[in-house]
């Protein structure tokens, strides 16, 4: 997956596709090659989700820090 594709995926899109990848892996019946390709795709999607969540955490931390700064300045 290219960086452009990763940037184009929302958290929800990446999460939903990751759920589908996991479902397919758990169902079995895929060849080794197909399973490896699914695993690799799952790893890429997990990274996309992790980046979205880390970004959300950073935004929350910044908002909380700003709020605390405003309260201390009162």
Structural notes for this entry:
The structure is a single chain. By secondary structure, this protein is mainly α. The protein has three helices and no strands. The longest helix has 41 residues. It is rod-shaped and about 65 Å long. The termini are far apart.
Instruction: Detail the poorly predicted runs.
Output: none
Pattern of helices and strands: HHH
Radius of gyration: 18 Å
Strand residue content: under 5%
Strand segment count: 0
Number of helices: 3
| Average residue-wise pLDDT | 90
Gap from first CA to last CA: 49 Å
Overall, the morphology is rod-shaped
The major pleated sheet works out as: none
Residues in helix, %: over 70%
Structural class: mainly alpha
Concise synopsis of the structure shown:
By secondary structure, the protein is an all-alpha fold. The protein has helices spanning 3-8, 11-27, 32-72.
Task: Write the topology of this structure.
Layout: H1 3-8, H2 11-27, H3 32-72
Helix pairs in contact: 2-3
Short descriptors:
about 70 residues, mainly alpha, 3 helices, rod-shaped
């Amino acid at each position: 997956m290219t960086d452009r594709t990763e940037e184009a995926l929302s958290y929800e899109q990446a999460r939903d596709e990751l759920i589908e990848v996991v479902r397919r892996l758990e169902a079995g019946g895929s060849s080794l090659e197909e399973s490896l390709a699914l695993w690799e795709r799952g790893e890429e999607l997990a990274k996309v989700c992790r980046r979205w969540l880390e970004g959300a955490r950073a935004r929350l931390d910044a908002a909380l820090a700003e709020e605390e700064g405003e309260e201390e300045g009162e």
